[in-house]
Design a protein that fits this description.
Helix 4 crosses helix 5 (117-127). The strands form two sheets. A three-stranded parallel sheet has the order 4-3-5, sandwiched between helices. A two-stranded parallel sheet has the order 1-2. 22% of the residues are buried. 32% of the residues lie in helices and 10% in strands. The chain has 191 residues and is of the alpha/beta class. The longest helix is centred in the first third of the chain and has 15 residues, at 43-57. The chain has helices at residues 4-8, 43-57, 76-83, 96-102, 117-127, 149-159, 181-184; strands at residues 14-16, 39-41, 63-67, 88-91, 164-168. The chain is globular and about 55 Å long.
Length: 191
């Protein structure tokens, strides 16, 4: 694995045009910026940011957001902000099990941030006016790793009613083909 300094030695400047990975603190995205000047966002990144800001500031209604990822803690501000703006909020990925556990569902060995259960309960109360999708019990010893066909169908049908959709984060452990269906599905055109 290369260090940021070694990677930076190969270039004179840094332009990041990869919106989808810009938030990651990796050697090739964040690390090299300490050694290369200028280090800037590219035109594609600016275009994506402009679309995102426009979609959130002035969305065509109904406005939906899909938020996935592994941890509630990394998405708190996104979820709280979107709850105030969207008509439909779909949560998925590993973080959903913290919400399920907060509702008293059995989540087996699935990822749960125990220190975020109270926050999840608070966010669920705020979301009640938007509607909450029920979950099935996950048996002890089993682990939720992706959304299932029923959720994909429900998400797709819900998205068919929307005019604006933003999506942040994976619905499953997409690095493994068996658990990538919910993330790879893309039944809708975003923005």
């Amino acid at each position: 694995m290369s260090s940021p300094r070694k990677l930076a030695a190969l270039a004179d400047l840094y332009v990041n045009d990869a919106f989808g990975t810009a938030h990651r603190a990796h050697a090739c995205t964040e690390g090299v910026t300490k050694y290369l000047k200028p280090a800037v966002a590219g035109f594609l990144m600016q275009k994506e940011l402009d679309y995102l800001v426009g979609a959130v500031a002035n969305p065509k209604k109904p406005f939906a957001a899909i938020v996935g990822g592994s941890k509630v803690s990394s998405k708190i501000s996104v979820i709280e902000s979107l709850l105030e703006k969207v008509d439909i909020l779909i949560l998925g990925g590993g973080m959903i099990f913290t919400f399920y556990k907060a509702q008293g569902y059995s989540v087996g060995s699935s990822l749960v941030e125990k220190d975020k259960l109270e926050l999840a309960t608070t966010l669920l109360e705020k979301a009640k006016t938007k509607g909450v999708v029920p979950a099935s019990a996950i048996p002890d010893g089993w682990m939720g790793l992706d959304v299932g066909p029923d959720s994909i169908k429900l998400f797709s049908e819900t998205m068919d009613t929307t005019q604006t959709v933003i999506w942040n984060g994976p619905m499953g452990v997409f690095e493994f083909e068996k658990f990538a269906a919910g993330t790879d599905v893309s039944p809708i055109t975003l923005l």
